[in-house]
From TrEMBL:
Keyword field contains Transmembrane: yes
Membrane-crossing residue ranges in chain numbering: 52-73, 85-102, 114-132, 138-156, 161-178, 184-200, 209-227, 233-252, 259-280, 292-309, 314-329, 335-356
Stated name of the protein: DUF2157 domain-containing protein
Keywords: Membrane, Transmembrane, Transmembrane helix
UniProt-listed InterPro entries: DUF2157
Domain (DUF2157) ranges: 23-161
């Protein structure tokens, strides 16, 4: 069974195998034999001109979408409810139909029309909710927007639509959107987040960007669930820390590197937060007694980072950088001249950047 890889990856392999064959490192005909073990994803490799055209059309779609939304917003007060509703529905139908009509002959232009239609769809959710005074607020609107993007991502097999859907799920589950109405449609994220992971695995060529953002959306939703049941701050962070570490140690088989990055972001933020004493004073210990659990957490995090660094886990370097910088800022900001504080802090970051780059090169550029 052939291994399915991305179009760009297949093009790189083809170029390198031919190069090795040409210079005698591979036997004649071996390049074709090796390439036969792989299968490129749908479509053709993207060359420079095609990439430029795609970017230009995407920017054009964004500008047109913003212009249309600006026009609607500026004339919104002067329209009655029926006119507002019909205008939004008409715009949605026109751009989706236009994309469908141009898809066969001009696929890239058609895709830009689909993007505009997706933007109008999202605007329609917000504006219709405002028009009819529907409850739920922005959080429900973002979730409905993301849910409506999933069929489009499947139809277009477009990872960027999947990326935007994941971003709407993050916004829909974020804590600053919580309101008196309770969880509302955010319970749908229990189904929508796994569904997006399945769509990515099945239709979006296992995009790492979609996986990372969907994973972060999942952790954001878990954090908000803990907040909804009024869990103490230290318990919220400790739960995320444990889950992040588990994802690093037990990654998804098809997304090992991406799992490591998502888990590292989560356990890094949660772990460093738990080294702050006052976080533990939210329900666990009395005020002024948070230094001991914070110190214990610092030791646990340091031991974990040493273990991961010995395993050549590159994301751990970023967490180490944040961990050290947290204590550097804590101990020196009030006692050091501000110019010297920033200079030394910058040098520390540059040093970690050099360490990260050297580690990446030693591993063959795995994070390119």
């Amino acid at each position: 069974m052939k291994r399915v890889i991305g179009k760009g990856e297949f093009a790189v392999l083809e170029r390198e195998f031919i190069f090795l064959e040409k210079h005698g490192e591979l036997e004649q005909g071996k390049a074709e034999q090796l390439l036969g073990l792989y299968e490129a994803g749908q479509g053709h490799a993207v060359d420079g001109s095609s990439r430029f055209l795609r970017i230009m059309l995407a920017i054009g779609a964004a500008l047109v979408g913003l212009g249309i939304l600006s026009f609607i917003a500026s004339n919104w007060a002067g329209l009655d409810k029926l006119a507002k509703f019909l205008l939004l529905i008409f715009g949605l139908i026109v751009f989706y139909a236009g994309g469908f009509g141009l898809e066969r002959r001009y696929p890239k232009t058609a895709r830009s029309l689909y993007y505009i239609g997706a933007a109008i769809y999202g605007a329609a959710i917000f504006l219709i909710g405002q028009m009819f005074h529907l409850s739920g607020g922005a959080q429900n609107a973002f979730i409905l927007w993301g849910a409506g993007l999933l069929p489009l991502a499947v139809y277009l097999r477009d990872k960027w639509v999947g990326v935007f859907a994941a971003l709407t799920f993050i916004l829909g589950g974020e804590i600053f959107f919580w309101s008196a109405s309770g969880l509302g449609l955010r319970y749908l994220l229990i189904l929508l987040i796994p569904l997006l992971l399945w769509v990515n695995d099945r239709y979006l060529n296992k995009s790492k960007a979609v996986f990372v953002l969907t994973g972060l959306a999942g952790f954001s939703f878990i954090h908000d669930l803990l907040a909804a049941v009024h869990a103490d701050a230290w318990l919220q962070m400790l739960g995320l820390f444990v889950l992040g570490v588990l994802l690093v140690l037990l990654p998804f088989p098809n997304y090992r590197t991406a799992s490591s990055w998502v888990g590292s972001i989560v356990y890094g933020i949660a772990g460093i937060t738990l080294t702050i004493p006052y976080v533990w004073e939210d329900g666990l210990v009395k005020s002024g007694s948070g230094n001991i659990p914070a110190a214990i957490m610092a030791i646990v995090l340091a031991a974990l980072l040493i273990y991961l660094l010995r395993k050549n886990n590159l994301p751990a370097i970023i967490v180490v950088c944040g961990f050290i910088f947290r204590y550097y800022a804590d101990f020196t900001f009030d006692f050091m001249p501000k110019s010297l504080f920033f200079i030394i802090g910058g040098l520390i970051l540059i040093g970690f950047g050099f360490w990260f780059e050297r580690s990446r090169k030693e591993r063959g550029g795995q994070l390119e």
